[in-house]
Amino acid sequence: MNIFAIGDVVGSIGCRFLREHLPQLKKLKGIDLVIANGENSADGNGITPTSAQFLFDSGVDVITAGNHSFRRKESYDIYDTCETLLRPANFPPSAPGKGVCIVDMGRIQVGVINLMGVIYMESMDSPFDTADRLLADGLPKITLVDFHAEATGEKRSFGYYLDGRVSAVFGTHTHVQTADECVLPNGTGYLSDLGMTGPIHSVLGVKPELVIQKMRTKMPVRFDLADGACRMEGAIFTVDEKTGKTISVERIQIQ
Q1: Is 149 helix (H, G, I), strand (E, B) or coil?
Q2: What CATH number corresponds to the domain at position 192?
Q3: Helix, strand or coil, per DSSP, at residue 50
């Protein structure tokens, strides 16, 4: 089974680029399931019902999120009504939605877990303990984890912690694709960060001059999305359906 995980989709420009290129890639690589981080898919940050539906209509099967999950109030209801739109499972129980789903593909089921790191991020329940609780409840043999986190050390530690217990762990949030794709010793596919789907000449999707202004002046600056050429980044995890182990990891960049 080939599962394609897509790095943070930024704004309508990233959504449109994904729609232009995902169908062809699915055919070329024989993709069975698509997971995309969509917490920045709406212009101006966050996710809206419109941006979520756009991603689903473009061929995404499961949308994960992160620290911007609830930036837009209009999204709150869809977290409760859409089974395949996730927010990190270690948010407080009072938060809308849930952090895990099971996709029934007929011949097989696939679990997807969304968790958020705590280093340089908001204070949350331990992602390690939350993962233990979710896995103890019983999930399909093939289960993947989107770990939305800042620190590479936390991401790699988390990957090794779940090695052999899930099919794959991939990081999101930094919008910068890493080059450490591998299969860990006990069969879990791993990549520290999938990267970003959005404008190439940007700082995390934002016009560089605006971020530079913010960094230099420390004053409030309205962040507008960059435009121009885009890139879609992610990774394909090829998973053995019998064992749930990852066979290979292929990093993807399309521009």
Answers
A1: coil
A2: 3.60.21.10
A3: helix
DSSP assignment of 81-102, as one string? H-TTB---TTS-TTSSS-SEEE
- Structural domain contains residue 52: yes
Q: What is the pLDDT of residues 143-201, one digit of tens each?
A: 999 999 999 999 999 999 999 999 999 999 999 999 999 999 999 999 999 999 999 99
- Active-site residue numbers? 68
Give the residue numbers spanning the domain of 194.
2-200+227-254
Neighbours of 254 (CB within 10 A): 16
The encoded tokens of residue 90 equal 């270690």
Distances 183 to 63, 104, 214 between C-alpha atoms, Å: 24, 25, 39
Convert the pLDDT of each residue in 87-110 to its tens digit.
Answer: 999 999 999 999 999 999 998 999
Q: Which residue has the tokens 């309205």?
A: 222
* Count of the separate structural domains present in the chain: 1
Task: With respect to residue 93, please indicate whether it lies within any of the assigned structural domains.
Answer: yes
Nearest to 17 by CA among 251, 228, 232: 232
Question: In this structure, is residue 97 part of a structural domain?
Answer: yes
Q: Write the single-letter amino acid at 214.
A: K
Query: What is the reported pTM?
Result: 0.95
Closest listed residue to residue 6, CA positions, set 144, 151, 184, 188: 144
Question: Residue 118 CB: number of other CB atoms within 10 A?
Answer: 18
Domain-located, residue 153? yes
